Amino acid sequence: MAKNLVLWLVIAAVLLTVFNNFNESAESHRLSYSDFVSEVKSGRVEKVIIDGYTIQGQRQNGEMFETTRPALSDPKLVDDLFENNVVIEGKQPEQQSIWTQLLVASFPILVIIAVFMFFMRQMQGGGGKGGPMSFGKSKARMMSEDQIKTTFDDVAGVEEAKEDVRELVDFLRDPGKFQRLGGHIPRGVLMAGSPGTGKTLLAKAIAGEAKVPFFSISGSDFVEMFVGVGASRVRDMFDQAKKNAPCIIFIDEIDAVGRHRGVGMGGGNDEREQTLNQLLVEMDGFEGSEGIIVIAATNRPDVLDPALLRPGRFDRQVHVGLPDIRGREKILKVHMRKVPLGEDVKPELIARGTPGFSGADLANLVNEAALFAARASKRTVGMDQFEKAKDKIMMGAERKSMVMSEKERLNTAYHEAGHAIVGRLMPEHDPVYKVSIIPRGRALGVTMFLPEEDRYSHSRQSIMSNICSLYGGRIAEEMTLGKEGVTTGASNDIQRATSFARNMVAKWGLTDELGPLLYDEEESDPFNRGYGQGAKPLAEETQRRIDAETRKIIDQCYSKAEQILEENRDILESMCQALMKYETIDSKQIDQLMNRESVTAPGGWVEESDKGDDTGAKAESAEPSVDTDEPSDQSDSSGDQGVDPDVPNSPDNNLH
Ligand SMILES: Nc1ncnc2c1ncn2[C@@H]1O[C@H](COP(=O)(O)OP(=O)(O)OP(=O)(O)O)[C@@H](O)[C@H]1O
Ligand SMILES: [Zn+2]
């Protein structure tokens, strides 16, 4: 459409010039005004046409000429002309330029129309990203077969998923042959799995292995404010794909268009439904033998419209899960190929210490480690850097320059020590990995627990223990600083503990009182809280029973945590002191503290003290910009991690 705009302007300009010159004689030549006057006086001029400042004339011998009179008026001219019997013709100024005038008058309107159309098209994705990678109106990006360098070797740790899609490569390489040999022709594949597990990567690798073009678009690109745009994009995309077959169409975040129809959004969403319908029509419309495979990715397969999953559409599901310890090791190795590694680096150790990390997290880990090494001007990336990178990703970046008052530090130290001690002494609780009162992200301090191995489910006891350790922070503050000294630091702990307790009652079926029933299915559709699939409004009586039972669990856990901290008050004090001194302590120091032994300095401590181990030194090094950087609700999260509020639904939450 950019081209169209230019075209409009060019046409307008050409027309203007043409009409302007319409009446100009081709042969006339120019004279200076004084030459003209002298020719008049010498009687050689027969006729003039005066048109504003322009004077066209004809000599006795028939020659045409033209001159421009000066802006100063020359009253003698008319006399001279009459004296020499020159025929004078006037001209209505508009006469020659009626077209010109029309055009001039309408020119701004034309420009406005052109600009308007330009933006309309822009919004519809026409000129969109531009360049050779985009095509038509569909907004999808195409990578040709020689642009794709990704192969199956780049995708690690998801062996089952790789096996599941291997057949697609055979099909894409030679669709006809595949069909003759009687293979079941795939059309749509749904890749389901958590964010960052490599769905996009795997889809690209299929294209890379089969050496076919790869069209990619995100579901959210289809959803526009103008009804019909999304549907036309879908149509365009399939048209383009058919021209480039065999090829892969990859639709990321299919849930943006493919959500269950008729629920949510307060009474339907025409645009989204139209888009989805168009997608279904297109999926039905091509023959498998054409060699197009549509791969869609989502991390919410549960919210998809069942129509999408019918035979002939996305009838094949590939689960791309979080990698296990072996998978993590393999993924780390893939990404470590790109950095110079120190001798001491052991991918298997890093893999063990990173449960729950996705492929994207691991790629990020290697990247962060390389950055730490670069900052320290190291030639290779060593285990130290990987440790630091891991802490940064798991606990958030350190904000060393943030100045905390001594009182706040003390408060945070008691709070974190409380979490750590209760966590340490409760059965089936994940071991304490690190306790720190260095502010990170939005938190003033962090207690990090780390399971010894990957966990796929949680026992009732482990959830109860988790609730206990969550309250440990608040209780420790209250015990040492008194009721009046308690801060808002525990707000996030309280929120999470409550959520665990409530889920135990209403979702995980872990209480005798209410039994193994699902009482509320929040979030089956985030846009549609409360009325999702399967949710039923609860009777007031049931609500009350759930609340009472939740309260019971919390009271039980609270007193258990209180009891533990009272019995180990001396450890609470010594751990607080160790934290005030070292700021961060590891499992080794925690072991010593729990055994009431003297505490040795944590690893890397000497280094730390160079950077300033007391508040005074920290204040000096503080950057002025940091103050404004602080979140306004920082007091709410003091002593806590600013975790995603959605997280409490999962017991996999190791930061207190
Ligand atoms: N299994 C894996 N093997 C190697 N690298 C991986 C793997 N999974 C993810 N990565 C790394 O993480 C990056 C992001 O992964 P990718 O975009 O494929 O994830 P995704 O599942 O599509 O995520 P999302 O759901 O957020 O779109 C990849 O470019 C790659 O560097
Ligand atoms: Zn806390």
From TrEMBL:
It is found in: Cell membrane; Membrane. Residues 634-647 have a biased composition (Low complexity). Its main location: membrane. PROSITE patterns: AAA (PS00674). Residues 185-324 form the AAA+ ATPase domain. It comes from Neptuniibacter caesariensis. Its EC number is 3.4.24.-. The chain crosses the membrane at residues 98-119. Binds 1 zinc ion per subunit. Acts as a processive, ATP-dependent zinc metallopeptidase for both cytoplasmic and membrane proteins. Plays a role in the quality control of integral membrane proteins. Homohexamer. One of its GO terms (biological process) is protein catabolic process. Keywords: ATP-binding, Cell cycle, Cell division, Cell membrane, Hydrolase, Membrane, Metal-binding, Metalloprotease, Nucleotide-binding, Protease, Transmembrane, Transmembrane helix, Zinc. Zn(2+) binds at H415, H419, D493. The gene is ftsH. Residues 608-621 have a biased composition (Basic and acidic residues). GO terms for molecular function: ATP binding; ATP hydrolysis activity; ATP-dependent peptidase activity; metalloendopeptidase activity; zinc ion binding. GO terms for cellular component: plasma membrane. The keyword Cell wall biogenesis/degradation does not apply. This is ATP-dependent zinc metalloprotease FtsH. Its cofactor is Zn(2+). InterPro entries: AAA+_ATPase, AAA_lid_3, ATPase_AAA_core, ATPase_AAA_CS, FtsH, P-loop_NTPase, Pept_M41_FtsH_extracell, Peptidase_M41.
